């Protein structure tokens, strides 16, 4: 029975994360600072644009790590 409890918690947390990701993707353009932070790399050429949001990725990783740490505690 303990295995089913842990599987249930895993599915609930996974569902909440999927919902949060879906909401973030829906409103991504309306959040003013995401993807436009200092340190995000943008290289524009004649026929291409390379975009790598490294600082945004680091901040989102820190936030997700903090949330997961608090959920496990």
Mean pLDDT: 84
Low-confidence segments, given as residue ranges, are: none
| Total separate domains | 2
Could you give the distance between the termini?
A: 22 Å
Helical amount among residues, as a percent range? 55-70%
Please state the structural category: mainly alpha
Total of DSSP H or I helical runs spanning 4+ residues = 2
Principal-axis shape = elongated
List keywords for this structure.
73 residues; mainly alpha; 2 domains; two-stranded antiparallel ribbon; 2 helices; 2 strands; 60% helix; elongated
Note down, in words, how this protein is organized.
This protein has two domains: about 1-30; about 30-73. It is mainly alpha-helical and about 70 residues long. The longest helix has 25 residues, at about 1-25. The chain has helices spanning about 1-25, 55-70, and strands spanning about 40-45, 50. It is about 60% helix and about 10% strand. It starts with a helix and ends with a helix. Strands 1-2 form a two-stranded antiparallel ribbon.
